[in-house]
Hints:
Elements: H1 2-13, H2 18-29, H3 40-44, H4 47-58, H5 65-83, H6 99-114, H7 126-146, E1 155-159, E2 168-169, E3 181-185, H8 202-205, H9 208-215, H10 218-228, H11 237-253, H12 258-272, H13 275-288, E4 301-304, E5 307-311, H14 312-325, H15 335-344, E6 358-364, E7 369-379, H16 380-383, E8 394-399, H17 446-452, H18 492-495, H19 498-501, E9 530-531, H20 537-554, E10 566-569, E11 572-576, H21 579-588, E12 589-590, H22 596-604, E13 610-611, E14 620-624, E15 630-636, H23 640-645, E16 652-654
Helix pairs in contact: 6-7, 6-11, 7-10, 7-11, 11-12, 13-14, 20-22, 21-22
Amino acid sequence: MLTRIKQIIDWFNDEPEKKPLSQTTKTNRTPVGFCVAWTEEQLKQDALIKDKLRVLKRSGLALPYEVWDEFVVDTVIRFAKLCQELPASESYHHATPRGLLLHSLDVAIYAMRIRRNYILPPNTAPEEVIHKEIVWVYGVFLCALLHDVGKVLDMDIELFVGEGKEFARWTPALGAISQPYRFRYSKERQYSQHQHSGLMWLTPLLSENPMAAITSDRQLYHEMSAYLSGHADSDSVIGQIVMQADAASVAQNLGADKAGINLAAEKARGAAVSLAGQLRLTLAHLLQSGAFPLNKKGAEGFVDGENLFLMSKPIGDRLRSALLERGITNVPSDNSRLFNELQQHQLIRANDDEMAIWKCEVFLSAFDWRQTFTFVCVYWPSIWPEGEFPSIEGSITPLSDAVEQKEAVEGNESTTTQNAAISPHREEGGYFVTQEDITATVPLSQSVLDQENKEPSFSLDLMSFMPGMDTIVAEPEIMDKPVDVEPITLPVNESIEPEQVEISTVTDEISDAAPTGEALTSSSILLQKFDVRTLTPTELGEAFYLWMDAVLKGGVHLVNRQGAMFHRVEQGLLVVSPGAFRSFVSERCLFAKANTYGVVQQGLQPLGKHELRPDGRSVHKASIKDSDRTLNGFLFAVQPEWAELYPINPHVMLVCE
């Protein structure tokens, strides 16, 4: 009897092959071509995830130890369950199993390093940053982790639900993948869809406490929601950080070295940052924060109805300082360029002479006080619609003496203290002043040369698309020595959209506002505006030459000076391109497009007024003494009147090619 009972007990306890049998059964039940889903326990023990979490902590995601597991580890594990073995792209970067997971974790790591260059939250007082920064850093981490999660919707994913059953189609409503699955890229996928799909994953990814943390800061949650739904502004600090981190991760996966990774991030930074948006955002913040004392003695601004007159030197310095504090480095280093940017993007109003700087007499009736200052004029309702600014008790009277406007650059606002004149070189439009002592020869400073070489990459003169013209190649900032680049010449109709080079062929009578080339003289050119829709390229080229002759004779723009667009060399007059052409378009042309300056250059070709290189090309290169920088431009024969006004600049020498 006892023997029988012992046999029954042994039979119940005899399971030596149970675990191997279970694995064999699982393998047999998974069809060929299907992936077995990672479980939560497997992911927690995964060496790759452990290593990424370790690097993530060292990279700057400095959350308290008590919340690290719930806020970071659990979030990463849930994200990994969603990503499984899916790649980040079909044939580009991280196009391997687990590519989406690896790319997302790498972007999160890079984002934690890059965010150190930013103040979080932006435009926040230092005493508040201490309390809010940690949750903002966590928000950046989440956005970086989820920036590409929508790519799972680019794929058709099928789940194996059992023998003899039809495969089920996976959708986000089913949650993380937990069954054997297979996937393929959908032929009908929308390639930009993932940029708008991140927000839907935020709630299922986070537990109660992390969600409570990010929603406790309304500004943070608004920024995160806008970014993850694809509606972030160009000046979104989260968007800027993640874009740079994304570029760095892609470069790393494609085999770039450390310098290449840094360069990719820097290029992405330049693409992400819109200077116009940053200027508007910063100006609005300064107005809302009450940074400017108004309508009193010692004030930095005065309100006249809907116009806010801000003293040019303080506003320039405050804007530049605020932008640099936020990590925005592409800020013009001098006030003239900064004001041109503000005017170009309609953030400030031009005066009657179409200049950025206003000279006004301020009268405060309560103090019987009268003084003259130089201002920029802001239409404040467009910057802060909800704001309220009381008008001055007195008057603000604009003065018309344009010559005095050269007070506005380096110096004080009062007419009693003068300083150096503003550099009139302008790229996109705005204002210029008459400069005394223009015949003096001054070596070009390195900072000015840097500005000359920092043209946007898209504005390479369109010369590669024009017969007989050069390609101007911007020199990467990381290079210590200039690199010879072969010029590229492509036909117009194969390189640009037709509307980019379309020139109107209207033969009707041209309006009085834009006289034909035959009707123009150098004395009238500075009083005329040209409708580019009704002028041929040749007429625009003739107008440019007359404009150049007028500004040289009148001393309107600098010559042989820092920031100058004109330099006299031994072989003739070098006209810097594209700066001079853009200035002409900005000052004198109506209805201009981004490529209008290229049309002006094209119109110069049949006129024969400029000197060609021996190889028949139009663009010459000039070297700068004691510098490895170069200038590119058109070369014109020096007229007798020009020769009397301007000596040869010994610091600029034409390169013989």
